[in-house]
Amino acid sequence: MKFSKKTLGAITLASVLMFSLAGCGSKTSKTTGQDGVVNLTMWVHETDSPEGKLYKQKIEDFNKANDGKINVELTAIPRTGDASGYDDKVNAAVTTNSLPDVLTVDGPTVGAQANSGMLLPIDDYVDKTDLADFNKDIIQQATVGGKLYGLAAMDSSVLVYYNKDMFAKAGITAPTDSKSAWTFDELYENAKKLTTSDVNGIDLHLDWKGEWNTFAYLPLIQSNEGQIISNDGKKTDGFINNDKVVQPINFVKKLVAEKIVTTTPIENSFEEGKAAMAFSGTWEPATLAKYPDLKWGMMPYPKATKDSKSVSPCGGWGFYMTKSATGKEKAAVELIKYMTSTQSCVDMFKANGMPPARQSAFDKIDEYKTLPMSVVADQLKNTAQTRPVTPDYPILTDQFSKAIANAINGMDTKAALDAASKQIDSQIGK
After folding, report:
1. Domains assigned to the chain
2. Residues contacting residue 428 through CB under 8 Å, at least 6 positions apart
3. pTM value surpassing 0.85
4. Mean pLDDT of 36-62
């Protein structure tokens, strides 16, 4: 899937099953070497990409700055396809009790990993004042049971990208911040107006499926005051199959039924001029750079009604301390703090184009101070809402994503969500 290679790892049932074994004990590496140096190991999920090269440079710089005190051995593990390569390595390390001291983790899986005992909290080693500088969702995605388990250098979001020439021809003015975001009805009317015999009004990337369905469409439900699991994470019946969830999915079905949206868009449909708008993530500008003649802009995520709150996607990979760091927690957290400093956030943006996890970093990046990128900063500051932080997230997202796909492909929406609820509730909390 196009989006997963940028920001979202695969969320698999295998992951949560493996994490459930994490509490069986661990082989912690030696706390200090004979020379008194604390030796740490760290795994990251990128190798030869600009992001992967940044990790390597950062570790080299950290080791130089901490010469004689802390030394980090970095292992970069390539992600293959849906990110299973890295996940498989982590899962294997769980079963063999050979986890590194610090590793990168995708936000939605933190609940499962923390609940299993695989991760260690970092609360006692961080400055609470410094935490206030992080985007709220970065702290939320890393907090389980009131304890903070990690921090991140980058965040992500999904925006509505639009073709400026098509908008001008149709006499449509795009909103520029979350306060002026279109409602579902306004999005429908404008997308319908932009639809022609060879151009879809909007591409929702319904072909991406999987985690994209939860990442991109859950905010529409949250804006409609719906939620897909109870606050205590113990049940979905009455939540995931509630009318507040059914309505936004039926809105998407309406767009498909009226051929404003296609379930089988061509690759790069927006970039190729075959869609006037598109839901896509903060990785999209890298692709748009290959289309220098395309005039494009960004709009904030739509909301249910004028009186509804605006909600937008967020979250991503961060750095977490594992149980293998027992006895050297302070050094491990020093590494995490270094990798998520303001400068590291700025460096990450330069490497992969992803928005920073800190407000102070936004202040240092000129691109986020003006349109179109200011829309990203606005969303992450004002409307970002995390996916459910629950140990059973892999089960939840798997079934919810399938329910959305089934509904889009013709199944009655309520029936699809009822079936998902039955499957989820039979498995969660076990």
Report:
1. 13-156+315-382 (3.40.190.10), 159-313+392-425 (3.40.190.10)
2. 233, 234, 235, 236, 390, 392, 395, 396
3. yes
4. 97
